[in-house]
UniProtKB/TrEMBL annotation:
Gene3D superfamilies: Zinc/RING finger domain, C3HC4 (zinc finger). Residues 74-116 form the RING-type domain. This is RING-type domain-containing protein. InterPro entries: Znf_RING, Znf_RING/FYVE/PHD. GO terms for molecular function: ubiquitin protein ligase activity; zinc ion binding. PROSITE patterns: ZF_RING_2. It comes from Callosobruchus maculatus. Signal peptide: none annotated. The keyword Iron does not apply.
Length: 117
């Protein structure tokens, strides 16, 4: 059996250890995209993924002294913006590094990762 567990990347339960059923249930929901279905039952519906044209049309903004004085960071990587670099500006006015926000917008949701909590 140890070969099976190693091949699957799992570890067998120790003597007296009980399985974590909540973790198993969460993995099932994740694997079968059930979290979206549960949110529909709660009355919460997130916007659909952004279209490519909307994502590409987001304005770029040069980072200025005003941004640096306030001390704004990219909410994804938590690195400070550098003067003169280009950042994507969301409709809510949050600034992101291009390489940080574009995968989120293209693959996940067309809403600000900071505003969605």
């Amino acid at each position: 059996m140890t070969d099976y567990f190693n091949e699957m990347g799992w570890t067998p339960l120790a003597d007296g250890e009980t399985p974590n059923h909540f973790l198993h249930l969460a993995r099932l929901f994740r694997d079968y995209n059930m979290f979206d279905e549960l949110n529909v039952l709660n009355g919460e519906k997130l916007p659909p993924p952004a279209s490519r044209s909307v994502v590409e049309a987001l304005p770029n903004e040069k980072v200025t002294d005003a941004v640096l004085i306030v001390g704004l960071q990219c909410p994804v990587c938590l690195k400070d913006h550098v003067q003169g670099e280009t950042a994507k500006k969301m409709p809510c006015k949050h600034l992101y590094h291009d390489q940080c926000i574009m995968p989120w917008l293209a693959k996940v949701r067309m809403n600000c990762s900071s505003c969605t909590g």
